[in-house]
Amino acid sequence: MFPRPFDYARPDSVDEALAALAANPGARPLAGGQSLVPMMSLGLAAPDLLVDLARLPLAGSENGGGSVRLGALTRHRELERSAELAARAPLASEAARFIGNPRVRNRGTLGGSLSHADPASELGTVALAYGGQAVIAGAGGERTVDLDEFFAGFFETAVGAGELLTAVELDVPGAGSGHGFHEVAGRADDFATAAAAAVLTLDGTGAACATVRLALAGVGDRPLRVEAGEAVCAGAAIDAPLLGRLADAVADAVSPEDDAFISAGYRKRVAGACAARAVESAWTRAREAA
Amino acid sequence: MEVGFTLNGKARRLDVPAHWTLLRMLRDIAGSTDVKHGCGEGVCGACAVLVDGVAMNSCSVLAPQVDGATVETVGGLAAGGKLHPLQAEMVMRGGVQCGFCTPGMVLSALEAVRIGAAGSDEEIRHSLAGNLCRCTGYGKIVDAVAAYRDGEAPDDVPADAGEHEHRPEGGGSAASPGVGVGH
Ligand code: FES
Ligand code: FES
Q1: How far apart (Å, rounded) are the C-alpha atoms in residues A170 and A89?
Q2: pLDDT, tens only, B115-145
Q3: For the domain bounded by B2-72, which CATH number is listed?
Q4: At what angle do helices B85-92 and B102-114 cross, to 10 degrees?
Q5: Which whole number is the average pLDDT over A90-102?
Q6: Which fold has domain A61-171?
Q7: Which residue's CA is the closest to the ligand 2 atom numbered 3?
Q8: CA of B38: which chain A residue's CA is closest?
Q9: From ligand 2's centre to the CA of B108, what distance in Å?
Q10: What is the mean predicted confidence (pLDDT) over A41-69?
C-alpha cells in the first residue's frame, strides 16, 4: 500500500524536465499526482524516476485569437472556483466540480488529467466538446495536436515518450452559443457511469442549432465525440422529441462494456440521457444569451 | 532526501526516502499519528491535512512535494487546552463516534467554511464528498459544520470534552473517541 522506491527530480524549467524524461525511459512526469500516486500505492504504476513538474511555469490562462489557453498545471479547483476561468471556459468550470472530490480537485491538474486519459475523464469531454489544440513540448520544441486527435486509446494520448503536455487551447465560442454538462455516477466522488459535455452554436436566425459538439466519457476506451448525436441536432430546433431521438442515437452509437456493477445496456441508456440533458442545457443557455 | 517544512507551527527538517508519501512521513517519522491511514489510495479522506492552507489527502502527496510548505494536521487545532470551535461542535452534536474519520473530516470542513463552500447543507455535503464516515450517517457532521459556520460554537469546551461527553455514567473505561487534542 505504499509506492515502490523511485528516483525523484524537481526541475526548474520545461527544458530540464524534458531532458530528465528523455534520459530515462522509465520516467514519468508528476503533476498533481491524484491518479499517479494512488496508482503507485496500488502497485499499478512503478516508475523508475518521477519528474515533479511543480516548479514549472505552466499554470495560468489567457485569451487569444478566439481561443482560451489554459496552462497544463491549472488545478481543477481553479477551474471550479475561479470566476475568471469560469467566464473564459464555463464548460470546464462546470465539469470540474464533478472530478473526484474537493481534496483531489485541490491538487489535480488539467494537464495531468488529460495526459492520464482516463476513459471517464470529465475534462476529456470538455477538451473534445470545445475542440482546439493540445500544446506538446518535446526535444525538438513545441508542436500542436488537434484535440480531436489527442486521445489515442485506453489511457493513451498523442503525447509521446519524452514529451510533455504544456497547455491546451480551447476554441470557446462567443455570442450565440451555450454549453452543457451532465454526469451520472454511483456516488458523489465516483467515476462517471457516463458524462456528457455539449457546446452548441445557434444559426443566424437564433431559432435553430447550427452545430453541436458532443463528447461522452465513461462509455468507451477513451473520452470520445459522438458524431451520430451531433448530426441529430445540426440544423434543428431542440425540443423534447428531438432530445429523445438524440438519446437513442447516442445510446446506439457508444459501445461500453459490462463491468462488475453496471451492464453495458444500462450505461448506454445513461449515456443517452446525459447527452440529451447536456444538449438541452446548452440550447437553453445559447437561447438565453442570444 | 531532506524535506524541510513547518508542521503545526514548528519548523521540521526530516530525512525521508523520496518515495514515501506525506502520510507515511507524518505518521512514521514526524509523530503525527493524529493523521489517519485509511484506504491509502485517495478515496476515504481520513488522511487529509492542510498544505499551505489547502486540504489534501496526505496519502496522495509525496513527502518531497511538501518541501518548503506549511502543513497543518488536526492535532494543531486545539489551543490553550481548548478544542477548536469546530471540534467542539463535532463533539457536542454527536458528529464523532469511533473518530477515525474525524481528523480528515474536520480539516476538510474547516477549509470548506473558510473558502465559502459550506453555505447550505447541500454545499457542506458536496465539500465533504470523499471524506467517508462509517459510523455517524453524516447528518450530525453536517449539523456540526453548519453550526460552526454560523458561529454558534460554545466558547470554553475543554480539550478533553469528548471523553466526558461519551463516558458512561459511573466512570466506564472507554477510550476517548479520538478527537485530536493539541500537543
Ligand atoms: S488514507 Fe488517504 S484518502 Fe484514504
Ligand atoms: S466516526 Fe467512525 S468513521 Fe466517522
Answers
A1: 8
A2: 999 999 999 999 999 999 999 999 999 999 9
A3: 3.10.20.30
A4: 120
A5: 96
A6: 3.30.465
A7: B133
A8: A1
A9: 14
A10: 91
